[in-house]
Amino acid sequence: DGGITQSPKYLFRKEGQNVTLSCEQNLNHDAMYWYRQDPGQGLRLIYYSQIVNDFQKGDIAEGYSVSREKKESFPLTVTSAQKNPTAFYLCATSWTAEAFFGQGTRLTVV
Amino acid sequence: GENVEQHPSTLSVQEGDSAVIKCTYSDSASNYFPWYKQELGKGPQLIIDIRSNVGEKKDQRIAVTLNKTAKHFSLHITETQPEDSAVYFCAAKGAISGGYNKLIFGAGTRLAVHP
Asked: Of A24, A30, A55, B75, whose Cβ has the fewest other Cβ atoms within 10 Å?
């Protein structure tokens, strides 16, 4: 929020399709993250990137892929290999300890 | 592995009452403890945080306390208002491992403040 833009807000995917969620930031933060949120659970880390052209798997990376070609952008692709992709996806950035979140994308498989 | 437990999962209070949410962490190297408020359909917003060299921090109606010995920290909201109704998440960040110090989140507390 206030510098982190996630789009689209809602996304529908057919089974077997890949979809890409966008995350753009103008905070000039080096680190960017993708989290998945399911009802009744905390946020789980999918991927993170501390610098351009470098990213690392988080706790639940299977079925997801990312790229970090620009400091401002960290798109997440949900592939057909992700068997249960319906969830709320949150992008975050940080510079020091504090993490700041976007408004999220709600992905639904139809 | 690293874990953060948060209680209660739901909390219902009357307007004007206080609300307390508690979290326990497992990694004794954790040194940063933020609290986030998430309103329906939105991303979490940082509302207050505390570092391991401080025992308590206040910001108007919100306060956070940290007990490093017991490895738990709490969020206190006084004089609650209906607009405080939201889901609150605690988190703990540990020492750097593999070049990255990960933020571990609790499962969240749904707070309802009734007029």
From this structure: A30
Report helix, strand or coil for B82.
helix
Instruction: Express each pLDDT in A24-40 by its tens digit.
Output: 999 999 999 999 999 87
Interface of A with B (CB under 8 A): 1, 4, 6, 40-45, 48, 50, 56, 58, 90, 97-104, 106
- Rounded to an integer, what distance in angstroms lies between the CA atom of residue B105 and that of residue A14? 30
List CB contacts of B97: < 8 A, sequence separation 6 or more: none
Q: Which residues of chain B have pLDDT under 50?
A: none
